[in-house]
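User: Can you predict the 3D structure for this chain?
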Amino acid sequence: MIRTKLFLLAFSAAMLVACGTKVPITEQAPVMDRAPEPVAPPPPPPADVTLRDIKPIEAPPLAAIKPGIVYFDFDSYVVKQEYQGLLEAQAKFLTVNRNARISLGGHTDDQGGREYNLALGQKRADAVKRALAILGVTETQMEAVSFGKEKPASTATDEDARAKNRRVELAAP
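Assistant: Here is the predicted structure, written as structure tokens:
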């Protein structure tokens, strides 16, 4: 107990001494050799324009967002360039409609263990989420979840069916 108090006292004293040292200032602050240029006020609106003449910006209807699917290669969570148009369309809608939300469901094929596939499905959903965030969609508008191999699009075991299961589904929550 006494050792702890002595340690704290010594530590506090050392901190006060360290804070009391003065470092000489060797550089001077830059000096402006002239006054800044004055900024002109914006021109007034034309006298013949009224508030009734100004049209509000129309947002696309909520039905404009369509479910989409981003497919992935085997054991990959890299979003392919071919889905850029789909993601841009979704992002455009979501940035205009800030109250709209989207669910990103990550899926895998039937190969691999349950835990591994849940993790891979989450990585896929998170990759799509990052791509949408780069395009301006807010984090609060997106929910990325993994279903792993639990909800296959196809139950067949050939390569075409498995390729359909490696996906992220974009849908309204």
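Strands lie at 68-71, 102-107, 142-148, 167-171. Confidence is low (pLDDT under 50) at residues 59-64.
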